Amino acid sequence: MPKAMRASGMKKCIGCFTCMLMCSAYNQQNHSISKSAIKVATRGGMSSGFQATVCLACKGSRACAEACPSGALVSRRGGGVILKKDLCIGCRKCQTACIANAVNFDEETHLPIICRHCGVCTRYCPHSCLVMEDSDD
Question: What is the domain range of residue 71?
Answer without folding.
Answer: 57-100
